[in-house]
């Protein structure tokens, strides 16, 4: 039977009857959404005949909610009053792309985050967005996890939390395990693909994640969230909030614990975190203090699984045992394990880290034309990983040989810890000035400092020699400053055409002194300066359609290993990226769609080649020319009140024009070189596809089937078929049911069944080679779990 559908037309103005262009008009259930045109008019289509609640909102104005009955409502006019208080989103506005920005982005709101939050790390909540590939060392999304956008790993993805950089200053990576259950304190996320808009922290060479933490709610609340699932996984979360007290003060808190045995043998995680926030809100001021912390203890699973064990190849496993000289215990561990094999068996082979964050955020609306937001921040991190190392040479630890009788002992079994003790602090700021309706300026930037101590200790040795537990056999100190300032200019040239310019200057000072793990002396000092311009234009075809194009340049400094693995007084060359984005957006209410093409052209990209330096350390090399080109599509369509479809697709070509691989030659010494031309960049699938069908048969209940396909990926840059991750397709089912009773505001039952077809696949890996008689290649994989589930119960008061 066909379902009757109606259309609502109307006008949105301010309190002086001036039309508001770009105001959002949506139904309370979120199924139909549109925006007003230049005359403030809107048309909301695809409505089921009957009564609906409409919500109309515009930045800087108080949202209005009204019940409307289709067929009876004519001449709708919504007059919005200026907000009495400054908006919470002002703290991230300067670093985000807007509806008419010439940037490729995706917004993830709190509802979508909550629907997908079963305790897995944040990358898995973002797994269904365009061009994203995620992986988990322990195989089930808890513990060490990773994310790639357009094939670029976490060191090339700029992460900010309330505009404050989160990437590690030295490695430039992001360790989500240090922020367990952080998704429970996130209001929304914007993912920008490509260079994106200017932000704070390291340059975006694949994308950016701009995270805004939860703001205050209007009234008091309490919430208890619990999850249980496969691999003895538990998540317990308690959230409390006062709501706005007298409209001016609020306090919010969260306490979380996550434990899991992991899919990989002994790949356990024990994670704890909290989030505290207090705010003061005046008519023109917002002051917020956030304090959050994470503690993690994870059993190491970062060695992966040898190819022979992954393929259950018994002769191959025996050859691996012989090649690598495994003792009987380790050999039996390999032979008797399945695809969840873990080479580590030492009881305390763990990673341990603590991280505390302090953020003081302030925003002020000076007038209807000028506003400011700024932040002071401090992060304290400290931790170590512990490992058993058999048969280590004493001299490698600065220890003297042990003499027992007439025997001189030069090696020993030992347990070592490698520590990182760091401080990160600084400030961010942004002034937003809008002198007229057609012109806007944003002046922003940041200054941050990082201090990190790296050192190692031997806490036990069969032959202790002249060592002691508190002796540091290596220690080096790193210091880094990062200053940037940017100016963003927006011009509405005509009713349909707008331009933007975004100019950023960034200066870095980096220094490392002391001794490294191999006892080499370090004396690194570099002061790179970067200018990163971005230009673009946006053209409004109609209220529902928009075209955009942009050209951006980004420069990025090398990471810690790039510096310390090169000979003294030799510096790696920074990387350069030129990014072109052209896109089309469509928003008809029932249908939201976007299509974009991009080109990312690298100069001096740093890649792993297998080459070693003068002391035998592997390091990355600059390759002259490489590129990524692709097309991405993203759409959501409300088919009917009961069915909705979400889908996205990314197709790309990712190439290095000339690449040279080096492998160790154990027969003749030195290394052998192999040259390749026009090869695929490693871990860059040519296709990433996602589709989700949502079914809502009755109020409060939703069922979704999710399907994800990732094309094959090469483990290195040689495009060799024997060294790749096979393509994989994974299907998930998510169920959710909301209801309420008595004094309980809401109860949510959720179920996530992942990999329902029990596909055996690996989403990450690595490879290396050497020549010993013949050329030997060792491939390792990180298998992901087969069919597994997470069941949640969330109660809100």
UniProtKB/TrEMBL annotation:
Question: What range(s) does the TonB-dependent receptor plug domain occupy?
Answer: 101-207
Q: Name one GO cellular component term.
A: cell outer membrane
List the keywords (alphabetical).
Answer: Cell outer membrane, Ion transport, Iron, Iron transport, Membrane, Receptor, Signal, TonB box, Transmembrane, Transmembrane beta strand, Transport
The way it spans or sits in the membrane comes to:
Multi-pass membrane protein
The residue ranges of the TonB-dependent receptor-like beta-barrel domain are 348-755
Question: Any idea where this protein resides?
Answer: Cell outer membrane
Indicate the principal place this protein occupies in or around the cell.
membrane
Enumerate the GO terms in the molecular function aspect: siderophore uptake transmembrane transporter activity
From which domain of life does this come? Answer: Bacteria
Q: Note the PROSITE patterns from the entry.
A: TONB_DEPENDENT_REC_3 (PS52016)
Family named by the database record: Belongs to the TonB-dependent receptor family.
Q: What is this protein identified as?
A: TonB-dependent receptor
Which organism encodes this protein?
Pedobacter yulinensis
């Amino acid at each position: 039977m066909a379902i009757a559908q109606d259309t609502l037309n109307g006008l949105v103005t301010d309190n002086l009857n001036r039309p508001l262009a770009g105001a959002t008009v949506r139904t309370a259930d979120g199924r139909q959404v549109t925006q007003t045109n230049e005359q403030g008019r809107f048309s909301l289509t695809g409505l089921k005949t009957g009564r609906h609640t409409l919500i109309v909102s515009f930045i800087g104005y108080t949202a209005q909610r009204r019940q409307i009955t289709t067929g009876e409502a004519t001449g709708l006019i919504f007059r919005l009053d200026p907000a009495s208080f400054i908006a919470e989103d002002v703290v991230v506005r300067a670093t985000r792309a807007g509806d008419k920005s010439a940037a490729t982005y995706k917004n993830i709101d709190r509802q979508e985050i909550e629907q997908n939050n079963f305790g897995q790390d944040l990358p898995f909540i973002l797994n269904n967005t365009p061009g994203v590939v995620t992986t988990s060392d322990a195989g089930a999304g808890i513990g060490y996890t990773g994310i790639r956008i357009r094939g670029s790993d976490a060191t090339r993805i700029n992460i900010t939390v309330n505009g404050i950089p989160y990437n590690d200053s030295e490695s430039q990576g992001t360790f989500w395990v240090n922020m367990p259950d952080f998704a429970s304190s996130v209001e929304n996320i914007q993912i920008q693909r490509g260079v994106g808009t200017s932000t704070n922290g390291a340059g975006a060479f694949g994308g950016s994640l701009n995270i805004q933490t939860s703001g205050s709610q209007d009234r008091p609340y309490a919430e208890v969230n619990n999850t249980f699932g496969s691999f003895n996984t538990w998540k317990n979360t308690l959230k409390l909030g006062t709501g706005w007290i007298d409209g001016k003060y609020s306090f919010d808190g969260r306490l979380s614990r996550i434990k899991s045995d992991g899919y990989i043998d002994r790949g356990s995680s024990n994670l704890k975190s909290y989030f505290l926030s207090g705010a003061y809100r005046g008519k023109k001021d917002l002051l917020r203090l956030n304090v959050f912390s994470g503690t993690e203890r994870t059993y190491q699973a970062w060695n992966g699984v040898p190819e022979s064990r992954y393929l259950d190849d018994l002769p191959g496993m025996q050859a691996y045992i012989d090649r690598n000289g495994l003792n009987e215990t380790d050999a039996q561990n390999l032979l008797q394990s399945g695809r969840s094999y873990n080479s580590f068996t030492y009881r305390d082979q763990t990673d341990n880290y603590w991280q505390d964050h302090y953020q003081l955020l302030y925003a002020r609306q000076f007038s209807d034309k000028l506003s400011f937001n700024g932040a002071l921040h401090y992060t304290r991190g400290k931790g170590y990983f512990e490992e058993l190392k058999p048969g280590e040479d004493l001299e490698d630890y600065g220890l003297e040989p042990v003499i027992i009788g007439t025997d001189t002992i030069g090696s020993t079994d030992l347990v070592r810890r490698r520590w990182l003790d760091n401080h990160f602090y600084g400030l961010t700021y942004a002034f937003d000035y809008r002198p007229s309706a057609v012109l806007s300026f944003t002046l922003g930037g940041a200054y941050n400092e990082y201090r990190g101590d790296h050192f190692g200790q031997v806490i036990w040795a069969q032959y202790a020699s002249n060592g002691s537990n508190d002796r540091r056999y290596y220690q080096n100190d790193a210091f880094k400053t990062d200053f940037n300032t940017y100016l963003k200019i927006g011009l509405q040239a005509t009713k349909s055409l707008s331009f933007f310019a975004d100019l950023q200057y960034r200066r870095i000072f980096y220094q490392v002194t002391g001794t490294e793990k191999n006892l080499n002396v370090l004396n690194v000092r570099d002061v790179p300066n970067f200018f990163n311009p971005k230009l673009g234009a946006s053209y409004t075809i109609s209220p529902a359609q928009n075209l955009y194009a942009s050209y951006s340049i980004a420069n990025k400094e090398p990471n810690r290993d790039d510096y310390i693995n090169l000979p003294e007084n030799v510096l790696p060359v920074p990387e350069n990226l030129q990014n072109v984005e052209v896109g089309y957006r469509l928003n008809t209410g029932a249908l939201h769609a976007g299509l974009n093409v991009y080109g990312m052209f690298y100069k001096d990209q740093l890649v792993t080649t297998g080459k070693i330096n003068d002391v035998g350390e592997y390091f990355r090399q600059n390759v002259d020319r490489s590129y990524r080109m692709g097309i991405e599509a993203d759409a959501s369509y409300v088919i009917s009140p009961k069915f909705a479809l979400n889908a996205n697709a990314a197709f790309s070509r990712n190439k290095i024009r000339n690449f040279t691989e080096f492998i160790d030659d154990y027969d003749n010494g030195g290394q052998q070189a192999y040259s390749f031309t026009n090869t695929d960049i490693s871990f860059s699938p040519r296709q990433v596809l996602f589709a989700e069908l949502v079914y809502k048969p009755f109020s409060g209940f939703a069922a979704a089937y999710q399907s994800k396909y990732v094309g094959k990926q090469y483990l290195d840059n040689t495009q060799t078929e024997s060294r790749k991750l096979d393509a994989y397709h994974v299907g998930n089912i998510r169920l959710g049911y909301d209801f309420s009773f008595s004094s309980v505001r809401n109860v949510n039952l959720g179920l996530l069944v992942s990999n329902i077809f029990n596909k055996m696949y690996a989403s990450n890996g690595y490879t290396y080679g050497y020549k010993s008689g013949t050329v030997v290649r060792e491939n390792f994989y990180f298998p992901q779990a087969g069919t597994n589930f997470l069941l949640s119960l969330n109660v809100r008061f």
